[in-house]
Specification:
Elements (H helix, E strand, L loop, with lengths): L2 H12 L2 H33 L5 H7 L2 H5 L2 H10 L4 H34 L4 H4 L3 H24 L3 H7 L4 H7 L1 H16 L7 E4 L4 E8 L3 E6 L4 E5 L2 H4 L3 E2 L1 H6 L2 E9 L9 H7 L6 H14 L16 H15 L11 E3 L7 E9 L4 H18 L13 H8 L4
Helix pairs in contact: 2-5, 3-6, 5-6, 6-8
């Protein structure tokens, strides 16, 4: 057909009743879209916003009802195809594929809305399902795409799906990471290995912070310096990591730190030191009990030499003071491990280790509690005529050398 003949045929068709009817259906389809989008969807949204439940808000935010506006024109055009026998077959296939794509998008948004609603409940922290939702969406798009293509080509989808069996090995290779991540997600959920909000450490991946997202393929960790590390989900099953959730759930956070005592300052308590220590309120019960115990033990000993008798030492008395001070501290957890102990002597002094738990697990407050405790104990040590060990500094050498000439 020449260009002139085609132009004449097009002019004749545009002037026919079929063209007018086609234009009417196209106009009706456009009007239906704007009516549904601008009127129906807004009325539905306004009605749902006034309901007391929260799940319907997720449907609005995800645009589930908005997507229905794209289906209205297709339904009108499908109805109008009966008036155009020549275009009925190809038009039906195109419109059905279009409808299939829109239904896939609607279901995708419904799944996203369902995930939003689920994440509003505390259970979502212990049982994240984002990975499963992502897998469901992947399957949805694959099936939707197969159906749309089969509709356009007018072939049975079962033939294509059955043919996929021959490509299983290729699919396993292509989706290897997805399959591994799916299995890891199931294990993480089944064994409750990690939840959103957990503080985890994985030094091999540079992760030390809070988990902010648990998805199918990745787990996102926000470090304390606000950087974000992305870890493959299956690595949480393959490699070891530290989860601090047990500390948070227990309600106590450990303090494990030692005071290094200069061993040359350890000695027996003489009367002058004991008299001064009796002025310390926290030590009165300890000293009274010890005085009675030592008097009874030394009653039959006539030797006045201290080494031959039972006697208090300044280090033992200081250890008793530390324990009394910690028991009076309202920030120390009294129901957890509570030793104040000596460790083996070292070239850097005699470690007096404090091994207790605070009743506040917040990092900032924990550090403040710990600092306050050791500020006090460091200042209290001279009262017991003890010295802390530290390596000589330039100030020490200058003091030994005397004033400059």
């Amino acid at each position: 057909m020449t260009e002139t003949a085609f132009a004449n045929h097009l002019v004749d068709w545009l002037g026919s009743e079929s063209a007018v009817l086609a234009g009417a259906f196209v106009a009706a389809a456009l009007i239906s879209y704007f009516v549904v989008r601008r009127v129906v969807v807004r009325l539905i949204s306004a009605a749902l916003e006034r309901t007391p439940v929260r799940w319907d808000d997720a449907l609005i935010e995800r645009g589930v009802f908005t997507q229905f506006a794209f289906l209205a024109p297709a339904l009108i055009l499908i109805y109008g195809l009966q008036f155009f026998p020549d275009l009925a077959e190809i038009g039906r296939r195109v419109l059905l594929a279009y409808v299939a794509v829109n239904i896939v998008i609607i279901v995708d948004r419904l799944l996203s809305a369902g995930l939003d609603v689920y994440q509003q409940y505390p259970l979502s922290r212990r049982r994240p399902i984002k990975g499963y939702m992502q897998l469901a969406k992947m399957a949805l798009y694959i099936l939707g795409g197969v159906f749309a293509v089969c509709t356009l080509l007018d072939v049975s989808p079962w033939g294509i799906l059955s043919g996929l069996g021959a490509l299983t090995a290729v699919l396993i290779l292509v989706f290897k990471d997805t399959i591994m991540s799916l299995i890891a997600s199931i294990q993480i959920a089944a064994y409750d290995l990690v939840q959103k909000g957990d503080w985890i450490e994985m030094p091999q991946y540079g992760a030390d912070g809070d988990v902010i997202d648990v998805a199918l393929h990745t787990v996102k960790v926000q470090n304390w310096d606000k950087t974000i590390v992305t870890i493959p989900t299956h690595k949480l099953v393959e490699d070891s990591f530290k989860n601090w959730r047990g500390m948070t759930d227990s309600g106590g956070r450990r303090i494990k730190r030692s005071l290094l005592i200069d061993q040359s300052s350890v000695r027996f308590c003489d009367d002058a030191l004991l008299k001064r220590l009796r002025g310390v309120e926290r030590l009165k019960p300890y000293l009274d009990a010890k005085e009675e115990e030592l008097a009874s033990a030394n009653a039959e000993l006539g030797d006045d030499l201290l080494i031959n008798r039972r006697a208090l030492t300044n280090l033992g008395t200081f250890r008793a003071y530390v324990e009394a001070y910690l028991r009076d501290n309202r920030y120390i957890h009294k129901g957890m491990t509570f030793p104040v102990r000596q460790l083996a002597p070292t070239p850097d002094g005699l470690p007096l280790e404090i091994y207790v738990f605070t009743n506040d697990t917040d990092w900032g407050r924990y550090e403040a509690i710990q600092a306050d405790i050791f500020d006090h104990l460091l200042a209290a040590i001279p009262t017991f005529e003890l010295r802390l060990f530290q390596h000589p500094t330039g100030h020490d050498f200058n003091r030994l050398a005397g004033p400059a000439v």
